């Protein structure tokens, strides 16, 4: 047998080892990709966390800067009476050392608030706030001893956010009302503007924010009357009244003592007025004497008016023959140029042709329709009318003068609560007002509004402006007893003089009312906010 040869074919290797390697490679690749994704996501998360933290810190310091400017503004409002005052303890007093001219180099470290004003010429006429001299205030504990208005720390030890607030002052000179300017020593002090500048930061983190805003003063009332006794009705009575004139009421050297659109029947010969608010002429005004300040002082220095005269017999008007202006003394009568009334042309002057009441008012002036409008700068009487409108308030049916007084911040009190420390705009609505021995002070006079009628009894020294109010011009001021008013008295109606009644016009009181911090407030200047310390 022939041997048969065999072809041996090598066996093909198994395929599964190759498939395992591919799976391993793919798994590794997927793991690498997932690791990259995780690392990227972690990086993005950390970035977003840092961004959120930075944004939170930025918002924190920005809010802190803005809130601190607002808190500083409220501090100014709370201490207005001292900040705007030149008297003892006032911030504008030369001895207070509260303000330093911007022309002087800033002391200490930190930012200079004067740079908030970009105009270098105006900046040279401004002040920066610096602490220093003593200030005897109820809020003295809140006044910092450092050069900063306030430095406060907020949050815990980890945050340690701080803010510094400083201020720059512009005292506005109103000598030219059409061109008010900043002045280091204003000839006619007007309003003032204070720029508050805040710098907030979180030390070590680079979180910093600035903010600045300007607040300025404005008057709450129109001002003080220029005549010691003003009435929308008649002035009469048999009392022994004395009135000291404003020597320059009608211009330099032109005095005025009484102003009324009705007959002031000193000479007992008036023919009366056609005004329906005025009664027929009577038989005289009694023993009324008007005089100048010098005659009233009886030889005392003129600066002693408010210190030597009140509550004493050291001062008083002389008789007609000894220098009085107008009056009824014994059998003699005289109506001089200081009496402004309508009585058929009796006296030294013809009948007046002007008064804050229709028909003498200007139809283009909303604040000359009543004495109330002139004094408080509030439009409450419709043009061509004499009574206060009754369509004000949220309900639309309230007395407009009542609403105006509330909007002005008049504090409703009872006259029994008054005293020497009283000041500001006060309002007794009870209709029964009994004054204590002393009301107000020469430095801080009172503007007292009394509704309806008022009878002055007893011995009282009153510093300020007394306003007896009536929406229908029907009020009555009954002057009796030894009442002395250093300032002025105004009545929406009649004045009945029945005793020892003295009204002494005082330029010092009038100026104190006009400039009184009690009638001055701070308000924000629109458009003055900026998120930077220095102006552009």
Walk me through what this model shows.
With 536 residues, the protein is of the alpha/beta class. The chain is built from 8 helices and 26 strands. The chain has 2 domains: 161 residues, no CATH class; 277 residues, no CATH class. 19% of the residues lie in helices and 25% in strands. The strands form 3 sheets. Strands 8, 10, 11, 12, 13, 14, 15, 16, 17, 18, 19, 21, 23 and 25 form a 14-stranded mixed sheet that branches. Strands 1, 2, 3, 4, 5, 6, 7 and 26 form an 8-stranded antiparallel sheet that branches. The chain is elongated and about 170 Å long.
Which key phrases capture this entry?
alpha/beta, 2 domains, 536 residues, 14-stranded mixed β-sheet, 8 helices
List the helices and strands and how they pair.
Elements: H1 16-78, H2 80-83, E1 99-101, H3 120-123, E2 127-129, E3 150-154, E4 161-173, E5 181-182, E6 189-202, E7 207-219, E8 229-231, E9 235-237, E10 241-244, E11 258-259, E12 289-291, H4 293-297, H5 305-308, E13 326-329, E14 332-334, E15 339-340, H6 371-376, H7 400-407, E16 411-412, E17 424-428, E18 438-439, E19 446-451, E20 454-456, E21 460-469, E22 475-479, E23 483-491, E24 493-497, E25 501-504, H8 507-515, E26 520-524
Parallel strand pairs: 8-11, 8-23, 9-24, 10-12, 10-25, 11-15, 16-17, 17-19, 18-21, 19-21, 20-22, 21-23, 22-24, 23-25
Antiparallel strand pairs: 1-2, 2-4, 3-4, 4-5, 4-6, 6-7, 7-26, 12-13, 13-14
């Amino acid at each position: 047998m022939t041997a048969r040869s065999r072809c041996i074919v090598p066996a093909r290797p198994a395929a599964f080892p190759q498939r395992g390697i591919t799976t391993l490679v793919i798994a590794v690749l997927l793991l690498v990709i997932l690791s990259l994704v995780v690392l990227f996501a972690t990086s993005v998360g950390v970035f977003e966390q840092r961004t959120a933290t930075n944004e939170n810190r930025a918002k924190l310091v920005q809010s802190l800067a803005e809130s601190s400017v607002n808190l500083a503004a409220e501090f100014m409002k709370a201490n207005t009476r001292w900040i705007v005052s030149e008297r003892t303890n006032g911030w504008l007093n030369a001895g207070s050392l509260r303000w330093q001219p911007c022309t002087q180099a800033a002391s200490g470290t930190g930012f200079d608030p004067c740079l908030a004003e970009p105009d270098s010429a105006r900046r040279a006429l401004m002040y920066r706030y610096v602490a220093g001299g003593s200030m005897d205030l109820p809020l003295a504990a809140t006044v910092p001893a450092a050069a900063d208005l306030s430095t406060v720390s907020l949050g815990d030890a980890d945050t340690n956010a701080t803010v510094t607030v400083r201020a720059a002052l512009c005292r506005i000179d109103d000598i030219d009302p059409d061109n008010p300017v900043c002045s280091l020593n204003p000839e006619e002090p007007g309003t003032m503007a204070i720029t508050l500048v805040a710098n907030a930061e979180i030390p070590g983190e680079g979180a910093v924010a600035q903010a600045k805003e300007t607040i300025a003063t404005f008057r709450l009332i129109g001002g003080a009357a220029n005549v010691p006794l003003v009435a929308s009705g008649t002035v009469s009575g048999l009392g022994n009244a004395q009135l000291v004139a404003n020597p320059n009421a009608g211009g330099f050297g032109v005095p005025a003592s009484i102003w009324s659109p009705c007959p002031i029947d000193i000479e007992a010969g008036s023919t009366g007025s056609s005004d329906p608010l005025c009664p027929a002429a009577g038989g005289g005004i009694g023993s009324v004497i008007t005089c100048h300040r010098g005659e009233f002082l009886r030889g005392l220095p003129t600066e002693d008016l408010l210190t030597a005269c009140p509550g004493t017999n050291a001062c008083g008007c002389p008789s007609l023959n000894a220098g009085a202006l107008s009056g009824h003394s014994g059998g003699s009568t005289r109506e001089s140029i200081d009496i402004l009334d309508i009585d058929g042309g009796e006296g030294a002057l013809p009948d007046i042709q002007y008064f804050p009441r229709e028909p003498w008012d200007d139809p283009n002036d909303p604040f000359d329709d009543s004495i109330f409008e002139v004094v408080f700068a509030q439009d409450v009487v419709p043009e061509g009318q004499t009574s206060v409108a009754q369509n004000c308030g949220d309900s639309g049916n309230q007395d407009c003068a009542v609403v105006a007084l509330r909007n002005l911040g008049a504090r409703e009190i009872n006259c029994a609560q008054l005293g020497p420390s009283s000041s500001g705009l006060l309002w007794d609505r009870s209709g029964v007002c009994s004054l204590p021995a002393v009301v107000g002070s020469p430095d801080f006079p009172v503007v007292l509004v009394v509704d309806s009628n008022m009878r002055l009894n007893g011995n009282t020294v009153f510093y300020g402006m007394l306003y007896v109010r009536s929406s229908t011009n029907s009020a009555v001021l009954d002057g009796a007893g030894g009442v002395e008013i250093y300032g002025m008295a105004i009545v929406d109606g009649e004045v009945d003089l029945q005793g020892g009644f003295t009204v002494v016009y005082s330029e010092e009181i009038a100026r104190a009312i006009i400039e009184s911090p009690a009638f001055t407030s701070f308000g924000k200047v629109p458009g003055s906010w900026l998120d930077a310390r220095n102006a552009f």
